[in-house]
Amino acid sequence: MALRGAIPEFISIVMGNLIGVAGGFLLLRGSRRMLEQPPDRKLEILLTVLTALGLIWTVSVQLENDKQAVYNV
Question: Does the structure show a pLDDT above 70 at 69?
Fold first, then answer.
């Protein structure tokens, strides 16, 4: 939120959400380590890529809708 307005919305929204997802993965990795299970890096990478693609698509659709709403007024 601190960089909104200073950098493009697309970058600030996607990166902010990806940082939150990365925090979740760190919790998952820590839990697996505490339970003495090996980290599942393939799963982490797959979920990160899918999350990033979903966020990029969602934000691009939302920003496109915002532009259309401004032009239709």
Answer: no
pLDDT of residue 6 exceeding 70, the answer is: yes
What's the sign of the alpha-carbon dihedral 15, 21, 23, 29?
negative
**Domains of the chain: total:** 1
- Say how far apart CA 28 and CA 25 lie, in whole Å: 5
- pTM listed for this prediction: 0.58
- The domain in which residue 9 lies consists of 1-71
The span from the CA of 38 to the CA of 61, in Å, is: 38
Phi, psi (degrees; rounded to nearest 5) at 35: -90, 10
**Tally of CB atoms within 10 A around 22:** 13
